[in-house]
């Protein structure tokens, strides 16, 4: 019964949650998680699975790079 969802709001570093259509995690739940972090963001890979960095590489990398640039610029 271990559940840390209430603690997500306490994580204040920029946090990227990446979900994919064919992953084992529900993309809607991943989107919710991204919204719980004060400085969080969700990125969706429509053609990805659990290894979206390979099977939806372009989408994955574009979202990751955008997140890093925005975090570095203080926009997150």
Explain the overall architecture:
Helix content is 39%, strand content 16%. It has 76 residues and is an alpha+beta fold. The longest helix is centred in the last third of the chain and has 16 residues, at 57-72. It has helices spanning 27-36, 52-55, 57-72, and strands at residues 15-20, 40-45. Strand 1 (15-20), helix 1 and strand 2 (40-45) form a beta-alpha-beta unit.
Structural class: alpha+beta
Q: Radius of gyration in whole Å, from Cα?
A: 13 Å
Structure summary, number of beta strands = 2
Distance between the termini: 32 Å
What is the string of SSEs from the N terminus onward? EHEHH
Query: What helical percentage do the residues reach?
Result: 25-40%
Low-confidence stretches: none
Biggest pleated sheet: 2 strands, parallel
Shape: flat
Return the average pLDDT rounded to an integer.
96
What count of helical segments does DSSP give?
Answer: 3
Sheet with the most strands: spatial strand order: 1-2
Portion in strands: 15-25%
């Amino acid at each position: 019964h271990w559940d840390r969802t209430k603690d997500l709001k306490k994580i204040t570093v920029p946090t990227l949650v990446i979900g994919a259509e064919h992953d084992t995690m529900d993309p809607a739940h991943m989107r919710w998680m991204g919204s719980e972090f004060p400085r969080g963001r969700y990125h969706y890979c429509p053609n990805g699975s659990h290894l979206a960095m390979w099977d939806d590489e372009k989408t994955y990398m574009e979202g990751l790079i955008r997140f890093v640039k925005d975090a570095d610029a203080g926009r997150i």
